Amino acid sequence: MPIAPRDYLILFALADGPLHGHGLLKSLESAVGGVPFDPANLYRSLRKLERATLVAEARTASNDPAGAPRRTYQLTRLGRTALAAEAARLARLTDAARHKKLLPVR
Amino acid sequence: MGRRGDRGADVVHRGALWLYRLLMGCYSRAFRDACGPEPAALFGEACREDWSRRGFLAVARRVVAAVLRVPVDGLGERRARHREARARSTAEAPHRSGPALAADLRHAFRAVRHRPGLSVAISATLAVGIGINSAAFSVIDSTLLRPLPYVNASRVVWLEALASSGQTTDPRPSSARAWVSEAPQIIDRLELRRWRTVVVTGAGAATSELLVEATPGYLSSIGARPVRGRFLSPADAQTGAAPVVVISAALWRSRVGARADIIGARMALDDVMYAIVGVASEMRTDNAGLEFRMVGPLADTSDEPARAVAWLRPGVSLEVAQSAIAALAPAATSTDLVRAHVSHPTKLFWGVKEFRTINLAAAAAGWLVLIIAGINVANMLLAAGQTRLGELAVRRALGASPWRIVRLLLFETGIRALPGAALGLALAWVLVPWMRTFNAGPQWQTALERIRFDPVIVAYTLGVALLTAFAAGLVPALRGSLTPASDRLKATARSVSGMKRGASALLAVETGLAAVLLVAASLVGHAFLAMRFADRGFAADRVLGVRLTLPPQRYPTPASRAVFFDRLIDDVSRLPGVERANIGYGVVPRTGDFIATGHWSVAGSAQAAADLLATRAFVAPGYFSLLGIPFLQGEDFSVADATVSPDAPQPTVISRSLAAQLFADGVAIGRTFQISSPTRATRYRVIGVAADVRVWGLLLPNSANRDAVLYSPMPEKRYFTDLILRVRPNAPLPVSELRAAIARLDPDVPSDDELGSAAKGLDEMIGRPRFTAALFSVFAGLAVLLVGVGLSAVVSHAVVQRTREIGIRLALGARPGGVQRLILVQGLKPALVGVAAGIGTAIALTRFIRALLYDVSPTDPLTMMGVPLLVIGIVVVALVTPALRASRVDPIAALRTE
Predict the structure, then answer these.
(1) Would the pLDDT of B845 be above 50?
(2) Which of B42, B61, B66 sits opposite A21 (nearest CB)?
(3) Would an 8 Å CB–CB cutoff place A5 in contact with chain B?
(4) Given Cys at both, which of B14, B36, B115, B830 links B507, Cβ 3.0 to 4.6 Å?
(5) CA–CA distance from B72 to each of B68, B167, B409, B796 (Å)?
(6) What is the ipTM of this complex?
């Protein structure tokens, strides 16, 4: 089952380890070349991924002792599997594009 | 972390938080509860980072994206949630109506079409407000918000020499290079530049131009690209290298007609042949938007101070850089040890105080006009809303939520605002070329030429339009949705008596704002007239001056230059109509090139040393009598004064203003004073006090020492000298004869300066005040027009509402005069309150435009009394029509309308 590009980017950003909202936003923006990413939208996607149990939330203490605990997000085992499957699907598509000479052959 | 001030970042952060919390209201409560404060916190954090790292435009981009995006997504989320809920509850029957949003939009469109008069009035009112506001913003956008023209401008700092007195100056190239090599972890690039005036000869008339001497990388650092040939290389700067120069495309076109074989061509600068090695695209500078036209290499051997532009390494904050740089070893100059210092360069125009004041005042005025327009719209909607209360009541009764009704009314205003925005943009489009016609000085002109209606301005205009529509629509919309249904149903059946209190309050506010604007316009206009008609202190209309620059190679000795000038004076004195001719440098035709500044202390006086500022002028004997400047004390220079040894006190003539500041007891002749700066101290002996001339002070309106002039004898060197001549009364100015006389003596001496009488030059000098006065007058005029029209409309509407009551009054024997008075009082009361508050506000605020006021107090009594009378007069005129209409109500017809 294909994953929406935005969800794929989120899962991809979490592949290196858990991130909190700010880190996630930054890595998403750098992945799309600095185009601003809307935080509310990010949370909406995160909640969708959570419901699909691809992503799990963990509350950790903030670095700032007075600050509220910050939520961090991490991939579930299912999430990692889905990400790998999606990456494989994209790789197949890329190979197909190469086959049609749309991309330079490595 | 922050490159900019932390305070700015905090303001951005807080503003972004607040905005995003507001926007989050578009999402459903359930979603907001689930997310908590984090999305807003993330947004705030991201905006703060954008601000510190990438600047205003990045923040603006993020904010605009959020404002456009979040409501759409939020409403989408609500709908999705709604659908899910509906799908879950099997009890509910499938609903076939289209989405409520689309229905409301359709309805709003119909309502707008249904009342074309109201719609046109609202669009036109908004257009005026938005047009003015957008024009003001476009000026600010091209001046104050414009970053320095460097690549990676956010990392640029000035590297300066900090003297022990605390003054900063441009460093010597050797010191700057040494400092940078000691702090490679802080600064990763250094470029140096300075300029001097050179005479360009060959290929066309002789001209004087600025030659910029810069390090090889400087041209690429200001974003210039080679159009032809190459840029400078390090080899060009070495001792013994052939002189080379890169010229701008503009100079290439104007001087040699864009000749294709320009590379390798030669050009004489101060009689030295330079090879042209390249033509550069636009070479913008950090000097208030002026353009460079010729750039040559900064010779390795020359160590005169130069502007040092340094780039901080990415991630190094100004604070870190400042402390690291301050710790570097000081460099020795002839008199002092100077430490390294870095400072944040101001934006292109921010450092120019008058610019800043004009810009900020224009922005404030733009917003005031927009607020007045918004209030007018709110008033129109309130009035129109009263006739619609019945319709809204029916909607409520049929089950529409208050939110739905607010939304519907806001849609209507929004739809009317869009044509308003388009018209406003068109108005701004007209206003900007109009502003260009004022010729308000080269800096403004460059800024105004640069104005393009780019996406930023269009987005700003749209945003402002929607914001105004929202704010103006909210008051009546909330009223429409919150009034109890019973009241509103009654309202359909009975006429409302009098104006609503809300409408009166809005009228008071807009009258007050218009009064504030009128006060500002009147003060600025007054100041302009004071400048225009100030007594110049000399016969400006009979004096003609031309600035002459002699090529130093051709006239290497003072004696050779003296011969040239003596012959020129001789030739020119014989021209028809010329009374006298002389040389001098300082008062006319242009001034301000030299300033005497530093600590001034008077010998034998207990008075503490003060920081004064005076224009410097260098004049030959006879200069004062030529211009017609009378001596108040003492006498003119003698020929011997020019050769006083540098160690002795220098003979000087000072202007009356300067004398008054230096010598409280009024005796100046024979007294000595000293001006000390970090690098040197000079003593002066006063031999004369001359009357004030009002020239340079026009540019320093509120400075205490604006007419202070320090005259010294013309030095022997005479590189730059003005030739001044006075014509007989009513004789024509011999402009072309003067040019011919100069060319006869030496065709390679540039005299291409715009020639004209000193009066004409002064008139051009006050182009900027003229521009400001015109700008404010237009703003204030439109504001008053809006107030008049709005007031008239609201009171007229109230009269229509009260037709029945007025009919009863007339039927019971009231006189038409009494009814007229009733209506007048009804309109005048809020206007009077508003004007009183407006004048109070103006008195508190006008000190912020002090920098623009010449010879006018910020609380000028004439203005403060005249403006209220004017506003009241306009209000009375606006009330005449409704008052007359009220007194002509036919009692029988009025009672029948029941």
Answers:
(1) yes
(2) B42
(3) no
(4) B830
(5) 7, 55, 19, 40
(6) 0.81
pLDDT, mean of residues B785-796:
84
Q: Please, are residues B685 and B732 in contact by the beta-carbon 8 Å criterion?
A: no
> Does residue B499 surpass a pLDDT of 70?
no
**Structure-block tokens of residue B838:** 């407006």
The shortest CB-CB distance from A22 to any of B31, B42, B65 is to B42
CB distance from A99 to chain B under 8 Å?
A: no
Kindly report, residue by residue over B636-683, the tens digit of the pLDDT: 888 788 778 878 888 999 988 888 888 888 788 888 888 887 667 888
Structure confidence at residue B836 (pLDDT):
93
Question: CA B338, B340, B344, B347 torsion: positive or negative?
Answer: positive
Cβ pair B592, B699 in contact under 8 A? yes
User: Tell me, what's the pLDDT at B687?
Assistant: 92
B107 touches chain A (CB under 8 A): no
Q: What is the mean pLDDT of chain B?
A: 81
pLDDT at B559: 85
Q: Cβ of A43 under 8 Å from any chain B Cβ?
A: yes
CA-closest candidate to residue B267, choices B282, B249, B247:
B247
Q: Collect all residues with Cβ–Cβ distance below 8 Å to B559 and sequence separation of at least 6.
A: none
Contacts made by residues B27-31, CB under 8 angstroms, sequence distance 24+: B27/A40, B27/B70, B27/B73, B27/B74, B27/B77, B27/B78, B28/B74, B28/B77, B28/B78, B28/B81, B30/B81, B31/A44, B31/A47, B31/B77, B31/B81
CB atoms within 10 A of CB B484: 10
**HSE value, Cβ hemisphere, 13 Å, CA-based, for B822:** 22
Distance CA(B240)–CA(A106), nearest Å, equals 53
Q: Tell which residue, A70, A12, A50, has the closest CA to residue B38.
A: A70
What pLDDT band is residue B833 in, cutting at 50, 70 and 90? very high
Give the pLDDT confidence score for residue B161 in this predicted structure.
85
B73/A contact by beta carbon, under 8 A: yes
CB contact under 8 A, B70 and A38: yes
* B451 interfaces chain A, CB cutoff of 8 Å: no
Binned at pLDDT 50, 70 and 90, residue B447 comes out as confident
Q: E-strand spans in B472-549?
A: 543-549
Look at the block and give the residue holding tokens 């009147």.
B522
Which of B39, B65, B66 faces A43 most closely, judged by CB atoms? B39
Residue ranges of the domains in chain A?
Answer: 5-99
Which residue bears the tokens 């704010």? B471
Contact B326, B166 (CB under 8 A): no
CB contact under 8 A, A38 and B27: no
Q: What single letter denotes the amino acid at residue B541?
A: D
pTM value surpassing 0.90: no
CA B888 to chain CA centroid, Å, is 51
Out of B34, B42, B77, the one facing A39 most closely (by C-beta) is B42
> Is B70 in CB contact (< 8 Å) with chain A?
yes
Which listed CATH number (1.10.10.10, 1.20.1250.20, 2.60.40.3080, 3.30.1180.10) goes with A5-99?
A: 1.10.10.10
Chain A residues with CB under 8 Å of B64 CB are none
| pLDDT for B582 | 87
- B38 → closest Cβ in A36, A43, A44: A43
Which of A29, A43, A46, A60 would you mutate first to test chain B, the one with the most B CBs within 10 A? Answer: A43
Section B82-88 average pLDDT: 79
Q: How far is Cα A47 from Cα B494, in angstroms, rounded to an integer?
A: 54
- When scoring A6, A25, A29, A38 by the number of chain B Cβ atoms within 10 A, the one with the most, hence best to mutate, is A38
- Chain B 9-68, residues with CB within 8 Å of chain A CB atoms: 20, 23-24, 27, 31, 34-35, 37-43, 45-46, 61-62, 65-66
The dihedrals phi and psi of B216, each to the nearest 5 degrees, come to -55, -35
